[in-house]
Automatic annotation (TrEMBL):
It holds the Pfam family NADHdh. Keywords: Membrane, Transmembrane, Transmembrane helix. It comes from the Bacteria. This is NADH-quinone oxidoreductase subunit H. It comes from Pseudoramibacter porci. It is found in: Membrane. InterPro entries: ComplexI_Subunit1, NADH_UbQ_OxRdtase_su1/FPO.
Length: 289
């Protein structure tokens, strides 16, 4: 019980800090790749503080704010389930529900830009969900439990039996982290600031709430990646940190070396990767059980 409380408290208090630092690291590395100096590492925190401090001079969209707060709370709740060591499948379902509230946030404004972005957000959800669900099934077949704590306390490193699931999950991380070439509903790049997908009609404070929710989601997703390599051995936690940093750097590299593709290509490529990598891995697990 104490371990669960510590896990939940650490996620609630530290995930936004870690997520903001990773966002700043992303900007810094991206700038270096593009031959620029880049902003300070703490720039994302300065931006969020500035957004919260802005004076509200227009009509407050209370419905949009309610949807965004629901998005943030569900994102935090899904992470709490995960880092408490509870059912990973339930955690993923709550995460999917949070994504739907982001869709509602976009369509509720009535903006044509937001409406198009909202439809693309639904396509993104439909694209990456099979890989996420299959990863949960893979963990169950390899460890015999859906509980995160049970998976962590197993004797094996999960990636040795789930390499295909790992490849498929890392592939869909590009969609979940909204990076090129799959940033079809919104992006974090400056050149898309005027017409910026689902965040186009967000006011200052609403945009700050969205940004903090994204930080929580990034930490959750990287924790999911760590689950592939963590077991009851102490050295597996060191290995998990190395794998997380390598995967995050890979996503930054892909983001800075790829152009956006159409949503149809994203759907076909992702489902093909999910079927070939995770699907084949699942069949092998079923045969060797």
């Amino acid at each position: 019980m104490i371990e669960k409380i510590i896990g939940v408290a650490a996620y609630i208090l530290l995930a936004q800090l870690v997520g903001g630092l990773l966002d700043g690291l992303d900007r810094k590395i991206s700038a270096r790749m593009q031959g620029r100096v880049g902003p300070p590492l703490l720039q994302p925190f300065y931006d969020v503080r500035k957004l919260f401090a802005k004076q509200i001079v227009g009509v407050i969209n209370s419905s949009q704010a309610a949807m965004l707060y629901s998005y943030l709370l569900l994102m935090v709740f899904s992470g709490c389930i995960f880092f408490a060591g509870n059912d990973i499948l339930m955690s993923v379902f709550v995460l999917s529900t949070a994504s739907l509230f982001l869709y509602f946030t976009a369509v509720i404004t009535g903006s044509p830009y937001n409406s198009i972005a909202a439809s693309r957000e639904l396509i993104q959800i439909m694209t990456y969900e099979p890989a996420v669900i299959l990863a949960c099934v893979g963990f169950y077949m390899a460890s015999g439990t859906f509980n995160v704590s049970g998976i962590i306390h197993s004797d094996m490193v999960m990636i040795t039996r789930l390499p295909g699931f790992f490849i498929a999950f890392v592939f869909i991380l590009t969609i979940k982290m909204r990076k090129s070439p799959f940033d079809v509903s919104t992006s974090h790049h400056a050149h898309q600031e005027l017409v910026k997908g689902v965040t186009t009609e967000m006011g200052a404070r609403n945009l700050a709430i969205y940004t903090v929710a994204e930080w929580y989601e990034v930490v959750y997703l990287l924790g999911f990646v760590a689950l592939f390599v963590i077991n009851q051995q102490w050295w597996s936690f060191v290995l998990a940190v190395v794998v997380i940093l390598a995967v995050y750097f890979l996503e930054i590299l892909i983001d800075n070396s790829s152009a956006r593709v159409k949503y149809g290509a994203m759907l076909k490529w992702t489902w093909a990767m999910t079927l070939l990598a995770a699907g084949v891995n699942l069949l092998i697990l079923m045969l060797i059980r």
